[in-house]
Amino acid sequence: MKDLGLGKTKIEEDVMEEIKHFMDVLRSHKSQPIDVKEPLSPSMSNNICALVFGKRFEYDDPSRQFLDKNIDEIFEYFTQTSLDVVFPWINYIPFVSKFLESDKPRIAFNNYKKFFQ
Predict the structure, then answer these.
(1) What band does 102 get if pLDDT is binned at 50, 70 and 90?
(2) Exposure winner among 3, 25, 51, 99, fewest CB in 10 A?
(3) Tell me: the pLDDT tens digits for 40-52?
(4) Whole-prediction pTM value?
């Protein structure tokens, strides 16, 4: 951000604070194997929340967990639907085409809409 002439900003401070929280979570596992998706997902969403709402949420906060759950569902949908772009014939497999017609993305987007209203 300094390269853009902005100097040290509130955003930079928020990101650094979130990195500290993320590192604390990693340290708490005391060198044991960990699935980094679990702490990384809330850490990334907290950076977005800091930009949008001006604050971070604790990892166990229901609002943040709600947002993360819907983000995961949206990304899961887009990851799955990209298969039919690469492999158009996949739509002719009955169980796959039924799976791609899922209402989950629409529900997730509607959940976001309600949350932000």
Answers:
(1) low
(2) 3
(3) 888 888 888 888 7
(4) 0.56
Q: Give the H or E element holding residue 8.
A: none
Q: How far apart are CA 69 and CA 77, in angstroms?
A: 12
Kindly state the greatest CA–CA separation across the chain.
56
Long-range contacts of 51-56 (CB under 8 A, 24+ apart): 51/11, 51/14, 56/14, 56/17, 56/18, 56/21
Residue 1: inside a domain, yes or no?
no
Question: Residue 99's domain spans which residues?
Answer: 83-116
Q: What angle do CA 36, 63, 38 make, to 5 degrees?
A: 10
Domain count along the chain: 2
Contact criterion met (CB below 8 Å) for 67 and 61: no
